[in-house]
Structures are given as C-alpha cells and as structure tokens.
C-alpha cells in the first residue's frame, strides 16, 4: 500500500511522513511499535508548533508570575502565605492546560484537517493514536510542572515537599490528574465542530474551572454552591492534592472536609480516567470533514 503526500490539510511536515511509515508494510504493525512511532510524531509536531508552545506551556507560567506578584498576606484562620496556596493551585491549572485544553484543541484541528481520517485508513492500530497523544501529554505536563515549580521555588519561595510521603503524593496526584484530564479532553473533543471554534469552546471551561476549584482563591472561602459544582471535576481534587504536598498540615483547618481526603482524591481522579475512556470510546469520530 502506498500513500501519496496530501497537498492540503497539513499543519506541519511530520504527519505525512508518519502515514508513509505506517503504510510501508503490508502487515499490521504491532501496537507498541506503532505507538512509539506515533509518539515521536506527536512530540515533534508539538515542539515545532510555536503557538502550541506559547498557549499550552507559557499561559500558566504567565498566570503564575502575574498573580504570584500580586498576592500577599496570610490566609484567614491560618499562618499560611496566600502565595503558597496559589502556587499549589497553579500546578493543577498547568496540568489542565496541557492535558485537557491542549489535547482537546489538537484533536479538533487534526479532525478538521483530515489527519484523523487519513490515519484511520492506514494499517496503524487505532489505539496507537491515543497512546501517542497520551505520551505527548505526559511529556509536556512533566515539563510544565517542572517549569512552574522551578519558578515558584526560585521567585516565590514555595517549599519543596518535606517528607518522602509527600513526594509520593505529588507523584500519584500528578500522574492520575494528567491521565484524568487527558481522557476528559479526548472525550470533550467530540463537542468541538471544527478547528476554528476549538479555542472558543475549550478555553471558557478551562478558565471557569480554575476559578471555582481553588486555584486563584482558597477553596474554603468560595461560595458553597461553587464548592459543590467544583467537586464534580478533577481540577478541584488535583489542587487539593497539591496543597497537601506543599502546605502545612495545619492548613486542613480551613479545608471544607477538615482533612486532605487523599483517598477520595485518588478515587475521583481514577473515576474520571475511566469515565473519560468510556465516553471517548463511544463518541470519538474518526471521520471529520473531507479535505478539499
């Protein structure tokens, strides 16, 4: 089977190359081999796209620097600096930026340009497409988190986790939160009709969830109805997990439940991962508009 390079619908020079590589053998390529090839394509395309780099990676950094420079004082009822609460929350926002917003928008663009449709016609196992996306999300989220923590530590004095247990909590909260947001982003992409409307449909959800999930304000100070709504979404739980890592245990005095609820955090993020996977499997469209 031989594919010719399409003259349109191409956002960079990597996708047609991947299609030729997948079509180069008459046998069905192994899932892991195809996934590795697709992951390389995804990472190369992301880092070559300056707009994706700026919007996905730099937007949370800009928020961190701006709001970190504005906030001051202690959280009411505690001896904890408001800056530290914000720093913990902005890490969760960074995860959502790369795993939810970035993924949903990129899928919408690839569906609109016909890339998803063309990949579906190659011998590549369809699961390799999603594995490649997930690898891209994991790598970019790790970079985003390292960048945010580096700035928070250097400029704003955010303390490192003080115990091995807290480092472990940071690891599983980051991992579960990343996968949960990625699955939510893949599922949410089904609601995006075309690439032109992608940012307009994704960005409001991204921004609203930050405001009601305890990123910009201490969660316990938000109206009760906001807390209730936020509890249905993963950002609130990720942010709470990160607070348990970076803030003193005395801060639980102003947490709504009076404790960190680590088991509840893990359960909610796992359920979002499973739910996103099921919804994606049921609603994902491999056929977008035809490329003219």
Automatic annotation (TrEMBL):
Biased composition regions of type Polar residues, renumbered to the chain: 1-11
Region feature (Disordered): 1-23
Occurrences of domain ABC transmembrane type-2 (ranges): 51-287
InterPro entries per record: ABC2_TM, ABC2_TM_bact-type, ABC_2_transport, Nod_factor_ABC_transporter
Topology in membrane: Multi-pass membrane protein
Primary location: membrane
Keywords: Antibiotic resistance, Cell membrane, Membrane, Transmembrane, Transmembrane helix, Transport
Bilayer-spanning residue ranges: 53-73, 85-109, 130-158, 170-191, 198-219, 262-284
Protein name: Transport permease protein
Species of provenance: Streptomyces griseochromogenes
